[in-house]
Amino acid sequence: MYYNDYNRLNDESVIPDGLSVDGPQTTPMPRKNRRGIKTAALCLVCALLGGLAGGASVRLVPKDNTILYEGHSPVAVTMSSVTSTEPMSGAQVYAGNVGSTVGITTELVTTNFWGQTVKGAAAGSGFVVTHDGYILTNYHVIDGASSIQVAFADGTSYPATLVGGEEPNDIAVLKIEAEGLTPVVLGDSDNLVVGEQVCAIGNPLGELTFTFTSGYVSARDRTITMENGEVMNMLQTDTAINSGNSGGPLFNMYGQVIGITTAKYSSSGSSSASIEGIGFAIPINDVKDMVKDIIEKGYVTGKPNVGIIMSDVSADAQRYGIPAGASISAVLEGSCGQKAGLQAGDIITAVNDTAVTSSKQLSSLVKEYKAGDTVTLTVYRTGETQTLSVTLDENNTDRVQAMDELYRSYQEEQQQKQQQQQQQSNPFSWGWPFGW
Known about the structure:
The protein is of the alpha+beta class.
């Protein structure tokens, strides 16, 4: 599974404003040849007409009266008749929403293996959700960005700031200094049915800005494991979704956003088979409340947090009778986990009645609850099993910072232990970085 952000590892990223396609040039045919073909064509017409008319004489139409038959008049896209109760054409969905869709470009600054600073760029899509400049996109589009730029279809461009993001759910809210924007209308993704037509507007390849693609809902409630290991609920669609479409809107035919285009299947190195028409979008109902929280408070409220750092029980430990589960490496002081009696070295093997075999599974199970809910954890400690009741904390901004500090201190402690073990195993190293 691959995200659809578009990355370039160079110092300059130029996104053309449009594409110019010139058709092939033809070389004029020599006059003699043209005349011969014209004569042959006239003879053929005479022969055909003569056969049909039973040998009747044929009057040739003079050259000056030649009529060229042209196509129909241009289709006028009118929005005056659009209602919320009648589906629209694809052209109407596009006309009504292209001004609310944006292309997003970011500058990335990373450090390579040799410690050198490397500049890069990424591109994605997004859409306006408020009149005063709040924009929704995917978290992975702006992850690690040192600067963010937002561009509209009319050519205007704004620098954007990150209001807040939710990495496990792959959403981020940006803010630009603009007023009087036209926000999209959010629909109800729970009402979608398989086979329903949908369409997308986005920035595929980071160059083909404001591209319209359409297709159908292929499936609902797909459990998809993303490239970063997160497990997400997704809509599946055969609408063309490519690199750069990430963060863009997926519309129903009433012009309402029912999903955020996020990912597509791609062939792995072990397979030469081509994979087409399998794209995924986050159902908008899954993130509506999160977006409101981020706009109002800068983070998603009600998210639970236990206050522990955990890892998986190794296969070697399991061979000696240690159960599979989430092994606790550190407990945050003052957290609900500490208050409930959790300790470093404990192994959580169940949440309520659901068995836990890994730290990721424990994290997924806890996400199903809200801050303030009480859960029962089954814990394995020094050969014995016991149950602990935990009332979950809220994962607010302060808790996130505290957990980050706990994780850093835990890493530093582990590094110090490793260095001590290396020195004890090699007493003649005298502290040199690479030993003898």
